[in-house]
Structures are given as C-alpha cells and as structure tokens.
Amino acid sequence: MMAGQGGQIPIIILKEGTKREKGKDAQSNNISAAMAIANAVRTTLGPRGMDKMLVDGMGDVVITNDGVTILKEMEIEHPAAKMIVEVAKTQDAECGDGTTTAVVLAGELLKNAQQLISSNVHPTVVTRGYKDAANKCVEYLESVSIRISPNDRAVLQEIAATAMSSKGVAGAKEQLAKIAVDAVTSVAEKSGESYRVDDDDIQLVKKQGGGIGDTILLKGVIVDKEPVHSAMPRIVKDAKIAVIDAALEVKKTELDSKIEITDPAQLRGFLDEEEGMLKSMVESIKKAGANTVFCQKGVDDIVQHFLSKEGIFAVRRVKKSDMEKLAKATGANIVTRLNDLSSRDLGYAATVEARKIQDDELTFITGCKNPKSVSILLRGGSEHVVDELERSLVDAISVVALAVEDGKMVVGGGATAIELSQRLSDYATSVGGREQMAIEAFAASLEAVPTALAENAGLDTIDILIELRSSHKAGNKYHGVDVLNGKVADMRKANVLEPLRVGKQAIQSAADAACMVLRIDDVISVKSSSPGGKAPPGGYGEGGDED
Known about the structure:
alpha+beta, GROEL, domain 1, GROEL, domain 2, seven-stranded mixed beta sheet, three-stranded antiparallel beta sheet, 18% strand
C-alpha cells in the first residue's frame, strides 16, 4: 500500500499481503541468506573437511561433502540463497569440481561488501570494483598457470588425486586417479592442435558389493542386461557385433484390422508366414556374419529361439545411450533397417560375456580395438559408499578432461588464491578512489580459501595466513596450506594441482553472483495464492506493508 501526499487517501498499488523490503534492509537480508549458504558448505572444503548427512522427506539419506550435491538436496527457498546455489550448479556444469570454493568465495565477497555498504560506499561502486578485480584475477591466473602435456600421465594423475583428496574415497585415490586418467585419455579426440573430451563417452556402472579397490576400468562397454534366451552362449570370443535400432518382431498393423480365418489350413498358413518373416530376420543377421546382437527394441520369442539355435548372443531393450556407447566402442554402425545390415556395419570386440554381479546379470563387451567409449564398474560396501565413489570419480574425470583440453594448470592448497590476493592488493593502490576499497575487499575475500582449509584442519588460521603472506611476499608463489602436515609448504612439490579453468570459473561465477545480489535494493514478495495462504518463499512473512 502506498500512502498519498497531503493527507489524501492512500493509493493501493501492491496486492494485499505483499511484503516489501527496501534499501539496506533488503541488501542485508539477501547478504545474510547468501552467507548462510556459504557457511553451510564451508566446513566441507579440503582434505580435512567434514561430510553432511542429508535426509529428504521420504527418509532417503545422502552422505557427501560434494558442494553442489549438498545444495541441491537442501531444497532452499530464499530467492537470494537460490542465486548462490546457481553458482555451484554453474561451476559443476562447467568444471565438475570447485563448487564449494566458488560458493565460499561468493559468501565472503558479500560479507566484505556489506562492511563497505555500512561505511556508505554505494553498491554500484562495489560491483564496479568487484568486476574489475575479477577480470584482473583471470589475467593473473593465466600468468601463474603452468603448461601441461596431455601425454604427461603422472601430472594428470596428481590432478585427479587432488580432486578426490577431500572425498570419502581418498584412501583409494591413487588407484582411482589412474582409472580416471586411463578413461579420459582413451576417449580424448584430437582436433587440430587441441583435444576434445566428451564425458558422456565414459560410462559409470554402480554395483554394491566388494570394496572400492574392486573398481575397474574396461576398454569397452557394460550393458546392464542379460541374454534374452537361456540357451544362448554366456561368452562369445572374437565377437562380431550388430547394433540394431529396430524391433526383431512382427509389426502390428497401424490401423484396426480384422483377419477372418474360416479354415484350419488358413491359420497354419498364417502362422507359417509369420514364422517365416521372423526366421528371415535371423537369416539377415547370420548372413551379415554377426554372432552378437544388441537390439534397442523388442525381440520376439521365435526370433530368440532361432538366434539361440544359431549360437548368436542377443540382448534386447538396450538404452539409447548404451547403444551409442556400443557403436563408439566397437566401431559398429547403428542399423535402423534390418534388411540393410551388412558385414561393414558390424563392430568388433575380443569378448562379449554375461557375468553375474550380486543378483544382476550384466553383459561385458571388452577387448575393443581403439575404443572411443569406455566403462568403469564402481564397487563399494554399501549404497552410500558407491554413490559417493561415483561423485568422486565424476569430479576426477572432469578435472582431467579440463587439463587435457586446456593444457594448463595451477597449484591448489590456497596458494594461487593468496598469490592473486597479493597481486590484487598491489593493483588496488594504482586505482585509487572508492573502487580501491572494493578491489581490496575482493583481495581479502580470496583469503577465505586458505582460511577455510586451515580451519577445517584444526590449524591456527591467523598464524597460517601471516606465514602465507610473508612467504608469497618473498616470491614463493606456490606456497599454500599443507593440511595433512599442518604447515605452509610448496604445493607444486606436494603435487596439489588443479586445472586452470576450475579457478577461473569459480572467480567469475562468484563475482557475478555477488554483484547481482548487491544491486538488489528492493524485494517485493507476493503472498502465495495457494489454499491455506502459505507464506511466500524467501522467509518473508505475510501481511501488508505500508510506506
């Protein structure tokens, strides 16, 4: 409701029950919500970070310290807090790792901005300074980055191990890092001078049982299906594989039709004709030279019978994504018309085998020549372990893929953050004016990364920060927090490495989100129109607000 001037009757502009917050109140509310999100994941950062247990309304439990998984599961309502969750989602989609770092940085940027706004620095000045600082950080990141070769497997394994060092599977990180590097280098495709890696070419199959150490990489594909007929061979050597996207059964008529049979001989002829059509399908497969068939659609019982008599291994109802992986791994062409199937369309694998794992039977296609699609079978003692193992390997695969594509890396352990912070502080003095204060606030915010690492390891944060600053002033740009030994050390020698793009995206996403939140000076929240008049999202109560 808006009050009229000079004692006039108030003019109603906003719907009854609308809540409105303006100016510093709105900014303070939004910043507090964003900081609460950052604090929720701050304790998970680094190798000494803790895990979160998330229980949904159905009682399902997720145990993880993966930033984006935590924020997705939390079902956050506050609109400003949702903007910080978007930072984590963007970071995850772009890099697969660094989500917690990005969110912690966004929260720290807003916390330091709030102090500036309280000192009467206008939010527009702060956002301008932040954007300038973020651009400078990207420049500095390029200058401190280290070039790497896609053939340098040892370095790539250290990058993968760093991504997994904070996860619950850290005990097996060496073995898992090797698997991640093998998988990425198998599917990487050269394009000119650079490489391209499609994460979808790496299939992850989860099965409970065994231990994390039983996780294996297969230079081929695992199909979560079994042979369609019990009389089919369980193993095929020197497999010639047909990948068929067509039903191996008689098509139903598209229109409603009626077949009138007046003579038993007609029925026999009708059934013989149908059987002949189905038998011709098997003849087409046999003629092409295939001894293994993967079909995306159904396989008729009669076709199953004839295939098993010919000793052909067949699987039906294979997922479209698995069909594409099969084609890439074996070199087969996906055939949509059975009549067109020829020996040129067949793929090759040394072995196709049906294996029983736990209660399920899976089909393993291994020994492919130069496969462009590979599979990882994940094993673990419980469902929660296998789920966390999957999240860890996805992170490891993502960072190795980035390193192969970009050919650049930086050191972790907060070393790069401190180096950028010091360079920004030096740059701020050349800017002058109030923007200098915003750039200095950005520089101070970068120290949140080593501070959180030290906090989570139970170290004295003040001592660590002082030592880090003096070490970097002395030119030791690779010095960071060695959380395992509780001291400041050279992160390059400790092999704590990460791709350049992870840090770059984290800074850009955090700065963009912080600037967006800071520019909001008016929050107008409309009452929910649902039955029962639920309060609107974001923690704003009901009831009109008058100006």
